[in-house]
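note to self: dont lose this again. the chain is below, predicted strucutre after it. 608 aa total, dont forget to put it in the shared folder this time
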Amino acid sequence: MSDKKRIIELLCPARDYNAAVAAIDCGADALYIGASSFGARRGATNSTEDIARVVAYAHLFGVRVYVTLNTILYESELRDAERLALRLIECGVDGLIVQDMAYREMNLPTELHASTQVCNMTPEGAKFLEDSGFTRVILERALSLDEIRAIRRATTVDLECFIHGAICVGHSGRCYLSRSQSTRSGNRGECSQPCRLTYDLTTERGEKLIKNRHLLSVKDFDLSEHIGELIDAGVMSFKIEGRLKDDNYIKNVVSYYRRKIDEALSLRPDCRRASVGRSEIEFTPDPRKSFSRDGGEYMFLGKRAGVASWLTPKAVGEYVGCVATVDRRSFRLASRTQLNAGDGLCFISHDGIIGSNINRTEGNSIEPNRIDGIRPGMEVYRNYDHQFTQSVERSRIRRAIDTECRVVLSEDGIVAQYTDVEMLSVTVRRSVSLERSKSEEKMRSVAQEQMAKSGDSIFRITSVTVEGAEWFATAKLLAEMRREALSLLASQRAERRLEHDIRTDDGTARYPERRLSPQHNVVNSLARKFYTRHGVEHIVEGLDTWRTTCGERVMESSYCIRREMGECLKQGAKLRDRLYLEHGRHRYRLEFDCQKCRMSLIDCSENR
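---
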């Protein structure tokens, strides 16, 4: 299409080929998927052959496929990384999502998207990436709406943001908490998720203020009510997190956001979706019924408290009520709620969380498979809805492209033309002698019925125009022509090339900083060359290569424990002691930059 409308993209995760097909069928405009290596999710890898299969199916609908090569690269890996990138480009992928600037130095013939691991938080940083040849900048999840607007004002590059799923509490690409506790690094695709562990909050004197709580575990993201604001702010790609999630999660969450984005687009005639094909599903999507840590807006509306989940890092689910009474085998809720055998429940109190499944229900009486620890007053959440999950699993899902048909009957033969919504068209002819039909009305009806069938094709025939119904053609012949035409149209869609915005780097852009710290993740000669070409004068080797992280900042975050506990230093906090987080032998000093409203963790483990 050559219209001037703004293109809006729903970008969805794909763990593997099956998840990719599910996402496409439920309405994804684009996918991001991991390759065999160099991706930030070691548990979500795919061969180039499988990615080629994904590309082939995706491109039928104009759905783009981006591959995540977003780990930092050691010197010994540069050649293998370049080979893999070139193989992926040969497979037809539409872009590479990268963190390491070594890829920029490889002059790869594809779009490069600057991963969120580049820690894209400022207008200056985004403008630099645009000027140095990146097609897209993927924004850090901690940004507010105003900060996104500021980046848009400074740039014209495509902006992508996360709208749903888990949040890294540390600024992306600048977290070394996992590396400080083991050899596993998030920048190498092996994060051990220590932010989901329990910690004690202590003072310098050793006083324990909070014990055994998940003090770094934040709630998941849910910006579904802000899609319109983000479009108006200049975001064009809306990203769902979840490359390790199962197919049911993909079907439910993708279907939900397809509807939310379509609603926003219906109010904005200057915008259109990035791919074609309408999705048909047989369930009502509800993201609360998939894995969720009680989703929220995080810092989208500004720095605020209430974004953490200190009691549990696990999926809590949807709130269903409060325990009213408990007997030897069952409990009752204070309000009547429809629960079913097989559902999973969470019981939450100030002392912690208990999980249980439902064995049976009778009226408002619920018999769980364990009753120990359940007490009146506990809040109850359903984190597994058995009936809903079955409905998703059993739902027939189909995505089809609206197509019109025009069939012309004449004494000398039949001409059938099929044209889809993107004006791709095929014409099939049969040179046969036709006799006069006995009933024009009946012939027209038969022709419309036959030419409107689409079977298991990727097309939905929305209208059939019949000319020359005074001539008779058999239903068998019409069906044969229809099948041939739809097959040719599918082949035409498969063979066409999507347009890309491949940019080069002339080296004239100046990086906003003259000195790069260990947190900038420069660990190879190509990345050094890139930054040097762009005016950087001093580069410290990336922290991931260091023997120890002791004494170094291992996390910077827009989340603040002081703010969360009501002890913000900018708001007259009574607690003025220096604070530490402790987990086993690991200890971290908390530093607070009140001007930027950020918290940092300094590794003090070897000083204990």
